[in-house]
Write a structure and sequence with these properties.
The complex is a heterodimer of chains A (41) and B (143).
Chain A (H helix, E strand, L loop, with lengths): L1 E7 L4 E7 L5 E7 L10
Chain B lengths: L14 E3 L3 H12 L2 E6 L4 E6 L3 E6 L16 E5 L3 H10 L3 E8 L4 E7 L5 E7 L16
Parallel strand pairs in B: 1-4, 5-8
Antiparallel strand pairs in B: 2-3, 3-4, 6-7, 7-8
The chains are: A mainly beta (41), B alpha/beta (143).
């Protein structure tokens, strides 16, 4: 069961949440933009 | 895969619910060896890392998110470590309940299982040997 449809978040990801048939909750996340290499940490 | 400093690099990230995020983070870092990387709000969420590739999100109780209930195990998290016995000693000294002492298994892993003070179940696994799944009754279906 999809709990929330894919939504762009201000922290740079597109995510949605779903419940599997056994009741575990999952969130799937797509990173939308690449961080600058020199700023990674 | 794009990189985003606001989310851990790991591809699978457990999200565990704790009644007090700050207390949980303090315990998980000192007892299990996690390191905090991003703090979100005073007591809302925290991202932790473990070694080079491990990641965990500690989440507060909110909406339908609930911490574990006594007498139930709905999930556990397995974490690979370099020395399971030493890790177990560290965890025990911080009050972890050791559910299974470090045990060598035929599949090449030395593992112990612990419950943290908040009810979450963990297995820590040290690799002793590279063993084919067929040698102990497993089946490699990866193709």
């Amino acid at each position: 069961m999809v709990m929330s449809t894919p939504t762009d978040q201000p922290w740079g990801v597109r995510s949605y949440a779903a419940l599997d048939p056994e009741g575990h909750q999952w969130e799937f996340v797509q990173v939308l933009t690449a961080a600058k290499a020199e700023a990674t940490g | 895969m794009n990189k985003n400093r606001s989310i851990p690099d790991a591809l699978v990230i457990p999200v565990l619910t704790y009644p007090d995020v700050r207390e949980a983070v303090a315990w998980l870092t000192s007892a299990f060896g996690f390191a905090e990387r991003v703090r979100i709000g005073e007591n809302h969420r925290s991202q932790l890392r473990f070694g080079d590739g491990g990641a965990l999100i500690v989440a507060d109780v909110h909406g339908d998110r609930r911490p574990p209930r006594p007498g139930e195990v709905t999930h556990s998290v397995t974490v690979r470590v370099a020395d399971a016995r030493a890790h177990c000693g560290q965890a025990r000294s911080h009050g972890a309940r050791i559910v299974m002492e470090p045990t060598d298994f035929e599949y090449g892993e030395r593992q112990y299982t612990a419950e943290d003070p908040f009810g979450h179940r963990w297995t820590f696994s040290q690799t002793l040997a590279d063993v084919a799944p067929q040698e102990w009754g497993g089946e490699d279906v990866s193709g």
